[in-house]
Structure formats: structure tokens, C-alpha cells
Amino acid sequence: MNLVVLQNWLNNVSFAVLFVTMLIYWGGTAFPRIPFLPILGTTGMVIANLCIATLLGARWLEAGYFPLSNLYESLFFLTWGITTIHLVAESMSRSRLVGAVTAPLAMGCTAFAALFLPAGMQSAEPLVPALKSNWLMMHVSVMMLSYATLMVGSLLAIAFLIVTRGQTIELRGSSVGTGGYREHSRLRRAVEPVAIASAIGSNGSGNTMVLNLETNQKSAISQVASLSPQRLNLAETLDNISYRIIGLGFPLLTIGIIAGGVWANEAWGSYWSWDPKETWALITWLVFAAYLHSRITKGWQGRRPAILATTGFVVVWICYLGVNLLGKGLHSYGWFL
User: Fold this and answer.
1) Which of 66, 147, 159, 226 could bond to 137 as cystine, CB 3.0-4.6 Å?
2) What are the residue ranges spanned by the domains of the chain?
């Protein structure tokens, strides 16, 4: 079996495995009492991850360069990154919902690369002169890993919004150590002055003071949506893991942008050219910087940072794929991403 046949076989196997894995995760979410489905789902992700790693290795041997020079290669590298980060997130959360949201993304990327791209775009081609550099591996691989990590973290934030139905909830746990305490303290500070003022304005009866205090507390707290204990625990887990995964992806994005600037200076004589790809990479960085800033310094949790992460999910896709649909800019090497 030559390397080209092996690659064709592996990309089809990867798609089939991820498709079945997606169905297993969805089945596990719909029927949580079936014990063996989570193990099957994790096994499917591991098999897909190994198949894609082997495919990329075969591609590397065939072409003689790190396989990140066109859309086909970058999609499989992105899928490999998504499955890898999925395994990390799943080990941290032990939740079936992680696979239910990440498996469709991984399967979709594989399906697009293996089934929809024409054969000419799937074949390995000689590198254009601008890409014959060690920075191809150092810059592009880190950027693709950051995209995969930020996508998984953002998907978990979207899952949080689905679980909580987009409502504001009070999280008992905290992914930033004191953020949950600060949020709870703000709620108490908002409740107690109102309750005390109302009690002081009463007829002076101690019973009336207690009644007004309890009534105002319940009124203020009722503005925060309540969930069942199981759903609340799931929401807290998704919020926590989403934050941690995005916290991993943001430094990778930062390193990738810096490495890209160094490569751009070597190739084009300028660290920054406001190329569309560079501009959207900066926008992506700013969105996730705002997300982390809101969580670390403001103590935000729950719905508001999840909405920021959802915005980031869209921005990452624009940066990765949308800009190249225009076919313009210094990064347009025939769908080079």
C-alpha cells in the first residue's frame, strides 16, 4: 500500500469513525443510563485521533514538508487538534455533553475535507517559495492548535447557554477561585440594603422587619433563574471547563501571532501589514482577551462570558476560513490557511 492510497483510506476511516462517534455521544446524551456509551464515544475519538495523526504523518513523508500548506491539510490538522483537546476536556469534566458538541464539529471538518474538496485540492503540491521556511511548522501549527482549542472552549460555552436556556444563574462553584464568591457577595449586597431599608420603613415591629427582609431577599433572588441540581452541576462544569480550555488556547494564539510577525518580517520585510488574515487574528485575540479579562478581573461567570465566547467562535471561523473565501491578501496561497 503506497502513501497516497493509505491517506485516502485513512481520511475515509476518520470520517466514518467520527460519524459513528457523534451518534454514540448523542445517544449517550439522550439515554444517560446506558453505561457503555461514554466508553465507546471516548474510544471512537481516540481511534479518529490516531487515524488522523497517521494520515498527517504519511502526508509529511510523501510531500517532504510539514502538512499545513493547503485547506485539505489544515482541516485534518484542525480536526486532530479538536479531537486532542476534546480528550483533555472530557477527562476534566467527565461529561457526555462534551462529546455531543465537539464530535459534530470534528466530523464536519473531516467530511468537508474528505468528501467535498476536489481531488486537485487534496493532492500534495510543491510548496511555493514563500512557504519554504521552518516557520511553516512553527507558526501555522501553533495557530491551528489555538483555533482548535478556542473552538472547543467556545462550543462548551454554547453548550452552557443551551443547558441554562440563556438565563442568568447563580453558580456556586468558581473557575477563578474568588469569582463565584464575588458574584454571590454582590447579590447579597444588592439584597441586604433594600431589605434593611424596607424594614426600617415599617411600623417598627420586629416581625414586620423579618418579614420584609425575607420578602425582599426572595424578590431579588427570584430574578436569578433556578435549575435542577443535576442541570446546575452540569452548567457549573461546562462554565469551568470552557474557561480553562479557552485559557489554554489564548496563549497559543498569542504565540502564533508573534511567530507569524517574525516570519512576515523575514518574508515581506514588515512585522505587520494589516493583511485581512492578520486583522482578523487580532480581532480574535481581542475577543478572547476580553473574555479572560472579564473572568479574571471582573469575576464574571455564566451567561455573559459565555456570550463573549460564542462571539469568539464565529470570529475564529471568519479568521480561519472566511477571510480566505475572498481569495485576497498576503496569506492567499491557493487556500493556504
Assistant:
1) 66
2) 1-119, 143-169+227-337, 179-221
